[in-house]
Design a protein that fits this description.
The chain is mainly beta. 7% of the residues lie in helices and 34% in strands.
């Protein structure tokens, strides 16, 4: 995987850009002026970041794996230490599928009923491969989502969720919080 150089990144017009940011040269970025990226972030091949009016905010120590999508007009927040696995889709906009309206971006807006709502991934959230996160959802700190799940509602802190629609199956261990503290304090 080839990463964009610091010089290439600095000319893309990001709203904010931290240090040690590794973005594949095969990533598609739309609305860079509405994207904030923290430090120690890696975004792999074939990802799409399409920031609408709300923008995208990516914290520190974040990994976004191959072919992940972050798309929509609502704000998308990916907090510190979050991990987004391959082929995960995070949407902050959604067409109306009822049949009462037309759908797709080529249709004039007066014939559509697109809704927009912010999406937040809290600290230490991890989302398994192939999962979908719909508009308006908050995955609170520590949430773990199993592969191929569909998140349609808010998820409780440190819950483990699976399925379509996803349901909580148990609580997640919180030992990672002590490891975070050691990393931040340089103790490892």
């Amino acid at each position: 995987m080839a990463f964009l150089t610091e010089q290439q990144l600095s000319t893309m017009g990001f709203a904010e850009l931290g240090s040690n940011v590794l973005i594949s040269d095969k990533v598609s970025i739309y609305g860079a002026c509405r994207i904030k990226i923290g430090s120690n972030v890696r975004i792999d091949d074939f990802c799409v970041l399409s920031a609408g009016e709300g923008g995208i905010e990516i914290g520190n120590y974040v990994h976004i794996a191959v072919s992940a999508l972050l798309i929509g007009a609502g704000k998308i927040i990916v907090s510190d230490f979050a991990g987004i696995s391959s082929r995960v889709c995070v949407y902050s906009s959604n067409d109306d599928y009822s049949g009462g309206f037309l759908t797709n971006p080529m249709i004039p807006s007066e014939y559509t009923n697109v809704t927009h709502a912010d999406v937040t991934l809290g600290k230490h959230v991890i989302i398994g491969s192939g999962s979908v996160v719909l508009p308006g959802v908050i995955l609170h700190d520590g949430v773990a989502v199993g592969s191929l799940s569909m998140i349609t509602k808010d998820c409780e802190p440190f819950g483990i969720y699976i399925g379509a629609p996803a349901k909580k199956i148990k609580n997640r261990n919180r030992d990672l919080l002590a490891l975070e503290e050691k990393l931040i304090n340089g103790e490892l």
